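Why should sequence recovery work at all? Because a backbone constrains its sequence more than one might expect. Tight turns favour small or flexible residues, buried strands favour hydrophobic ones, and helices have their own preferences. The token representation captures these environments compactly. In the example below, the structure is given first.
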């Protein structure tokens, strides 16, 4: 019962992280040509780390959402 509760919490957290990533990446892609180089690199690094953390969380969920993980890895390459 506790494991099921913890898994539900992880899924809720994963969904929240995906929402945040979607919002932040959209803003980043829209404004990246306007950003100074240092700000661009810093924002890209933060987004990449956030996505990597989200991938790590997704890998803890059973069954593992492989398509989501692949989408997140592709998103990192697109930044």
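From this structural description, the recovered sequence reads:
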């Amino acid at each position: 019962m506790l494991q099921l509760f913890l898994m539900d919490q992880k899924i809720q957290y994963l969904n929240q992280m995906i929402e945040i990533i979607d919002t932040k990446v959209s803003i980043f892609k829209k404004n990246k040509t306007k950003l100074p180089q240092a700000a661009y690199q810093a924002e890209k690094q933060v987004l990449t780390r956030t996505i990597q953390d989200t991938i790590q969380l997704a890998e803890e969920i059973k069954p593992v959402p492989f398509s989501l993980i692949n989408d997140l890895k592709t998103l990192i390459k697109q930044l």
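A few observations help interpret the result. The chain is about 85% helix and 0% strand.
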